[in-house]
Amino acid sequence: MSFHRLWAILRKEFRHIRRDKRTLFLVTLSPSIMLFTFAYLFAFEAEQVRLGVWDSDQSALSRQYIASLTSDSKLTVTAYPGSYASISDAIRRGDIQLGVVIPPNFQAKLYAGESSPVQIIMDGSDAITARQGLVRFQQRSADFSRQVTMAAPGATIVVQDQAWYNRSLKSTYSMVPGLIPIVLILPSLAIALALTREKELGSFETLITTPVRSIEYLLGKLIPYVVFGLISAIFATLVAILWFQVPLRGPIPDLVLMTTLYLLAGLGMSLFISGLLVSQGTAMRVILLIFFVPSFFLTGVTLPVDLRSAGGQLVSFILPATHFVQITRGVFLKEMGLGQLAPQALYLAAIGAVSFASSLLTFRKQVD
């Protein structure tokens, strides 16, 4: 590989982006504008909420209580932690969304006609799911209390709720970091349009007559969009912090590194897909269909990932935004860094490497 030829491609691409006002806007300011708009727009209902139950009573009544909570699958028990530390770890990993703590004297107090507290700990980084899960939990607890009261008058279950990472359960605190991966898909759209535009305008025909190699051409295309993508990520992060007042609790260097990996993953996939296309119109439709639309509904931004469908889980896992949503919410709200988010970061690095390698294998310096 010649670094001289690579530098020539890089200079050409940076100048093109700088001079083309539409492309410059697409890869720098438009993600921030979309983030500002979408944060006020989306509100959805969570179909399924994952519980982690710490049952210290282990009585027949506590088991009946758990069964009544999960009777219609709107609330499902996916973990049985045995301590607050275990609940904290499960919430940080995203294994559960609500932690339920049943005290050791739960059955004895209720059968004695007294009130018994039950604590619910919510993952406030996903405020929509936490709020709706709390409402469902309170309703189920009230229904169960009425059943117990028939046998023991005066028995009452008192739900004591506490939200971690977002005590006020402000939806913007969870929605804004979750939307950052969505709006950062725009640089991927821009690089796809850039590649197909060269084919449409005929400049690609001139390029193939030069000694520029495939890896030099593709890196020359990729690197400028990673740079401008990071600039757009900075603008989006400033909008989140300064306008929406979302706290950034995690380490900024780790966020920058993982954002770079996300851009490489998205841009790498877009580079591979656009290499197979010949028109800007087709590239726009394909990128929007494959990345943009599914990322709203299948990555955990607005609704939890559907664990009941194997196909839905597979699509969610393939999308880079699914993993970056966990990263942005973890860094912004849970004070997590690269150490805790290493699996997501490694996946993004792997998909970026595989996508770029696939682009090299399928790239052809010829005109069909």
What is the chain-wise order of helices and strands? Answer: HHHEHEHEHEHEHHHHHHHHH
Task: Classify the secondary structure makeup into a structural class.
Answer: alpha/beta
Strand content: 5-15%
Number of helices: 16
The percent of residues in helical segments reads 55-70%
Residue stretches low in confidence (pLDDT < 50, at least 5 long) are none
- Tally the structural domains: 2
Number of strands: 5
* Widest sheet, order of strands: 2-1-3-4-5
Computed over alpha carbons, the radius of gyration is: 25 Å
End-to-end C-alpha gap: 25 Å
**Sheet with most strands:** 5 strands, mixed
Taking all residues together, what is the mean pLDDT? 85
Gross morphology: elongated
Please outline the helices and strands.
Blueprint: H1 3-19, H2 21-28, H3 30-38, E1 49-55, H4 60-69, E2 75-79, H5 84-93, E3 98-102, H6 106-111, E4 115-123, H7 127-151, E5 156-164, H8 171-183, H9 186-201, H10 203-207, H11 214-243, H12 252-274, H13 280-297, H14 310-318, H15 320-333, H16 342-362
Parallel strand pairs: 1-2, 1-3, 4-5
Antiparallel strand pairs: 3-4
Would you mind describing this structure in some detail?
By secondary structure, the chain is an alpha/beta fold. The protein folds into 2 domains: 3-38 and 171-362, no CATH class; 49-164, abc type-2 transporter like fold. It is 64% helix and 10% strand. It has helices at 3-19, 21-28, 30-38, 60-69, 84-93, 106-111, 127-151, 171-183, 186-201, 203-207, 214-243, 252-274, 280-297, 310-318, 320-333, 342-362; strands at 49-55, 75-79, 98-102, 115-123, 156-164. It has a 5-stranded mixed beta sheet, sandwiched between helices. Strand 4, helix 7 (127-151) and strand 5 (156-164) form a beta-alpha-beta unit. Helix 9 runs antiparallel to helix 11 (214-243). The protein is elongated and about 90 Å long.
